[in-house]
Design goal:
With 218 residues, this protein is an alpha/beta fold. It has 2 domains: 3-117, Rossmann fold (3-Layer(aba) Sandwich), CATH 3.40.50.720; 122-217, Regulator of K+ conductance, C-terminal domain (Alpha-Beta Plaits, 2-Layer Sandwich), CATH 3.30.70.1450. Helices cover 37% and strands 27% of the residues. The chain has 9 helices and 11 strands. It has helices at 11-22, 34-40, 55-60, 77-89, 102-111, 119-132, 162-165, 167-171, 206-214, and strands spanning 3-7, 26-31, 46-49, 68-71, 95-98, 115-117, 136-143, 146-152, 174-180, 183-185, 199-205. The strands form 2 sheets. The protein has a 6-stranded parallel sheet with strand order 3-2-1-4-5-6, sandwiched between helices. Strands 7-8-11-9-10 form a 5-stranded antiparallel sheet. A hairpin with a 2-residue loop joins strand 7 (136-143) and strand 8 (146-152). It is elongated, with a radius of gyration of 21 Å.
Length: 218
């Protein structure tokens, strides 16, 4: 079990906080809006109303003792940057921060944020990918050009082993896992055979995986 602190309980912050609790972790949610705090007090480990832009408040909350902090106050750039700087100075282990735009993201990265997220943009990208390439079921962006993607097995993959497909040499991608019905093979071997309707979790260059997955739509 890990301990997280979520600073800012808007839609994104609330979603992160409640999901972490559902996954079995402890979460302290903080916001200066009493209504937001009251809405979450029964859904997360602890919800506190406080002004997170005050250094004294962050110290009293014991932020440096948490495994990670999620800064979810992107609409107020000054507050977002100020809070993030204070968290870094207090020695927090890992910081995720929501950014409003590219400039905001650059500043956050310069401060030392470990992960910058654009929730609305990322969700829009997911929806767009699914519309254009339905064969891509889900993906996790590692960096702009590389992703981990979940794709449906192409017809040409069916009844062939991973060694026969040789995806690493042909396309420069690796199969990390295979989902079949309710099963999950997290250590696929070269001799494992792909079946119809299998889902493959692959890692590689975004463009190549997207093009490969798109073949199933033609």
């Amino acid at each position: 079990m890990k301990q997280f602190i979520v600073l800012g309980l808007g839609r994104f912050g609330s979603a992160v906080a409640t999901t972490l609790v559902e996954l079995g972790h402890e979460v302290l949610g903080v916001d200066n809006d009493e209504e937001r705090v009251n809405d979450l007090k029964d859904e997360i480990t602890q919800a506190v109303q406080a002004d997170i832009t005050e250094e004294r408040v962050l110290k009293e909350l014991g932020v440096k003792n948490f495994d990670a902090a999620i800064v979810s106050i992107a609409t107020d750039l000054e507050a977002s940057i100020l809070v993030t700087m204070m968290l870094k100075e207090m020695g927090l282990k890992y910081i995720i921060a929501k950014a409003q735009n590219n400039l905001h993201a650059k500043i956050l990265k310069k401060i030392g944020v470990d992960k910058v997220v654009f929730p609305e943009r990322d969700m829009g990208a997911r929806i767009a990918r699914r519309l254009i390439t339905p064969n891509i079921k889900d993906y996790v962006e590692l960096e702009p050009n590389y992703n981990i993607m979940e794709i449906k097995a192409l017809p040409e993959f069916v009844d062939k082993s991973l060694s026969e497909l040789d995806l690493r040499n042909k396309y420069g991608i690796n199969v990390l896992a295979i989902k079949r019905n309710n099963g999950f093979n997290i250590s696929p071997r070269a001799k494992d055979v792909i079946k119809k309707d299998d889902l493959l979790i692959v890692i590689g260059e975004t463009k190549i995986i997207t093009e490969l997955a798109g073949k199933a739509n033609h």
